[in-house]
Specification:
homotrimer, 164 residues, alpha+beta, 6 helices, 31% strand, binds magnesium ion
Chain lengths: 164, 164, 164
């Protein structure tokens, strides 16, 4: 068992919806970025890549690459899971904490869990999504951006996992 | 084994003590919130809920509910552990990192570990508490609030945990 | 299996290099601190100490202690691993997410993984290093400092790990 941690932030700008946790949420701002700027999925993708020690999202999907302009971040997440499977491993659990003053995440939690489970190819009971505001403090509190922190629990085949 | 991550923040306002890690620490400010505003226990509660994919603290204990006004956050933590046990699981470990310029956390670390262990019903050697300042930077550095990041390591019964 | 989480920040000041992940990176600023101020290694050290519930880096290596002035933070990390081994445990995995607008971390990732693996006495495939900017937001976005969040996955001997 190995656990990775991921963190991501995207800035808010005027718009009509944010993508978060693989779900489009109507809102008076949108997240700015090269892809769909889904900070929750980006944090989770990095958590998985960290658990297998295979670079990070910026290395595998550089913003300079035109292929990923406006891309659905579920592609990035699925690619990280593919890398786990290539090593004979499985994703045992994914969890993400979203830090946002708005929009409200709760009503979209189950849709996010389902989207993450689908992208990872795991049962939905292996996905956690929580949200909190930053109580009006800092850049998230000033609604300048949305942040996310994620952990991924990975199981790799025993011979390698017993080697240390 | 599944690991969840939690994050929480509460603002500081003039007062005579903060509740952190289940311990009352005399201080010239207090944490503002509906309950006792214990950011460390809230982060830990969310970490446990994330590990079992069962909502978040805001869903189970909404600030709009008068029952939780001034509540001891150890109740929220114990409720999350109850949800783990309902699934036949155990909490293997809890860890929290507190980000605060003041008060000093070190002298209260062992009391916090004991309070968390008691709320979770686990031995104290299964609880970690660390603290750091934010080096005067950002909202925690300006003493506008206190933040906490937590992880919880959960074991669920094998049949479910082998299902992926 | 137990997982700990660590967080650290150091402020940037004019200088010629930063130490991050055990690697010296030429830069127009340096990280300010008593030791080499390597926020990534400090976060990782705290993650390991949290996983075994043994204090934090500030307790074991207080900034007030002249012995640690300018010290290489790999010493702190190695000491935390020593504490794991004293308990008959092993470090199964280390992962860190670095939050910095600059310098670029990617070109130094493999050197950091190697430095962390060496300090921990584990194979390099058990180490993850990721980096992200904060998209110009907050104190890291304003280049006032560099932050890091880490997780450490620890295995302790079975009798103790089954006790809960
Ligand atoms: Mg991103
Ligand atoms: Mg709270
Ligand atoms: Mg430090």
């Amino acid at each position: 068992v190995r656990v990775g941690v991921g963190y991501d932030v995207h800035a808010l700008e005027p718009g009509d919806a944010v993508w978060l946790g693989g779900v489009r949420i109507p809102h008076d701002h949108r997240l700015k970025g090269h892809s769909d700027a889904d900070a929750a999925l980006h944090a989770l993708t990095d958590a998985i890549l960290g658990a297998i020690g295979d670079g990070d999202i910026g290395r595998h999907f550089p913003p300079s690459d035109e292929r990923w302009r406006g891309a659905a971040s579920s592609l990035f997440l699925a690619d990280a899971v593919r890398r786990v499977r290539e090593r004979g491993g499985v994703v045992a659990h994914c969890d993400v904490a979203i830090v946002a003053e708005a929009p409200k995440i709760g009503p979209h939690r189950e849709a996010m869990r389902a989207a993450i489970a689908a992208a990872c190819g795991i049962p939905v009971d292996r996905v956690g999504v929580k949200a909190t505001t930053n109580e009006g403090l800092g850049f998230t509190g000033r609604r300048e951006g949305i942040a996310a922190i994620a952990t991924a629990t990975i199981r790799l085949p025993l011979p390698e996992d017993d080697a240390s």
